[in-house]
Amino acid sequence: MPGPKALFLMFDVSIFIRHNFARIWTLASRNLTTLEIGYISSVMVTEMLTTNLELQQPHIQPPVFPKIQKLSLSVDYITDAMVGTISKGLVSLTHLDLRDAPIIEPRLTFDLTNSGLQHINPHGKLKHLSLVRSQEFLVTYFKRVNDLGILLMADRCANMESIFLGGFCRVTDSGFRTILHSCSSLYKLRVFHGTFLTDLVFHDIRATSLSLTHVSLRWCNLLTNLSVKNLASNVDLQVLDLRDCKHLGDGALRAIGTLSKLKVLQLDGSDITDMGLSYLRWRVIGSLTSLSLRGCKRLTDKGVSVLFDGSSNLELQELDLSNIPNLSDNGILSLAKSHAPIRELRMRQCPLIGDTSVMALASMQVGEEEGWQGSSLRLLDLYNCGGLTQLSFRWLKRPYFPRLRWLGVTGCINRDMVDALARSRPLLHVACHGEELGTDPWNNMDEIYVHDDDEVDEFEQWLLEGRGDDDDDEDDDGDEDDNDGGGNGHGPDHDEVMNDAENAEAMVE
Ligand SMILES: *[C@@H]1O[C@H](CO)[C@@H](O)[C@H](O)[C@H]1NC(C)=O
Ligand SMILES: *[C@@H]1O[C@H](CO)[C@@H](O)[C@H](O)[C@H]1NC(C)=O
Ligand SMILES: *[C@@H]1O[C@H](CO)[C@@H](O)[C@H](O)[C@H]1NC(C)=O
């Protein structure tokens, strides 16, 4: 049987005894092209690869991973030694994805420096490079890399299509500009914590031949509207992540409003207002599949309504409206009326959101005519929504929200109801401690990720059990789930839903 081509070890492999671990790899398939490891120490990476290199000469044994093209590792420290061995040992590499999360400030011998960067990509074959220092345990950056390191790396970057640099706090405009002006195949650029990155980086981006489709600039606090204006010359932009760039305002949205191919837009924590959102109404909202406005505190219902009222054929699947203090049920009602095929809705920490929103969403209809009736939501985050009462829990029971898999609520207030709900919907993950729901820890939208769509969800199960062929909704309150212990009475029937939602709408009008 031929060995696997791809190996994903999405766990902490350091639980293996080191010596054995290195030997395991001599058994690894020589055909392996992809290796991804959830956690491994940098010492182990170096050992694993140097053992193989040393074996090569005396025993004339070829390297163990001759064909690896994609390597993705999460480590304790990205070090020069580790990067050097990877570059030497893996000659076919096209994708290199390294992430670290130091628990103490790295010392010189345990850190990445300009010299390490110089050794990355010796053969110029890399297409994708990702080097990220995450701040999971400690606020820490790559303090030993400056513009020189980037300059040396950019020397061989003509084939690079995607670059992700996270935590390079000493790199300035001239380093980042070098990337834009040297890496002529680049179409994806991500920079996190670009502390010194200013508008000057994009000032003459029109002079390059680049056509960027993915741009992510997170925690780049010196950026203003001007950068976004210049970036918008990349008319094919599909993904624009500007989270936590707090000086961006409506001027940025005006430029974004021209990007008719945009699918993903993230503006968390920016200074935009309702007026700015109206720029998205004409060319952008129709193509967006994901929009995040979390923590844009100047927004109100008016902005949300401007986006959704009268829009048709929306493709929006993910929406984050969390932490918007002036957002109320009225804003959610206009979303509910929009027929958007929404799958994930986050609106945690909104003090004015209450039961009316839950009712409206429960009776939301997707698709203009032939679409199936009922909410398409798979994820709903209502954690710390100020206006929720026990009434909402009646609408979170079956048969409402048939596809729901993730629900965030404030647990301590409604403990009994949360428990009863969790019991009656075993496929539903109910989170009540404020955990973020369904987030991908690698935050890596363009790489391989696990699909859970293969599993049967409640809606499908309901169909399989033969309850899907009702010709209409009237006999829906058969209430098969009688193991639902704590509920006080059954859920309201569908007509009641519609009426309440209509009433709620009438209230708005
Ligand atoms: C590698 O692939 C070749 C050709 O597909 C196959 O014949 C061989 O058995 C594979 N080797 C291993 C160790 O899986
Ligand atoms: C740019 O953004 C800021 C928000 O920080 C805003 O005050 C300013 O008016 C914007 N400029 C333009 C031209 O829109
Ligand atoms: C939000 O609501 C408060 C209280 O009603 C009001 O004072 C404030 O101006 C509102 N903010 C915005 C951005 O409309």
Automatic annotation (TrEMBL):
Gene3D superfamilies: Ribonuclease Inhibitor. Residues 46-434 form the F-box/LRR-repeat protein 15-like leucin rich repeat domain. Signal peptide: none annotated. InterPro entries: FBXL15_LRR, Leu-rich_rpt_Cys-con_subtyp, LRR_dom_sf. Residues 468-484, 498-509 have a biased composition (Acidic residues). GO terms for cellular component: SCF ubiquitin ligase complex. GO terms for biological process: SCF-dependent proteasomal ubiquitin-dependent protein catabolic process. This is F-box/LRR-repeat protein 10 isoform X2. The gene is LOC116196278.
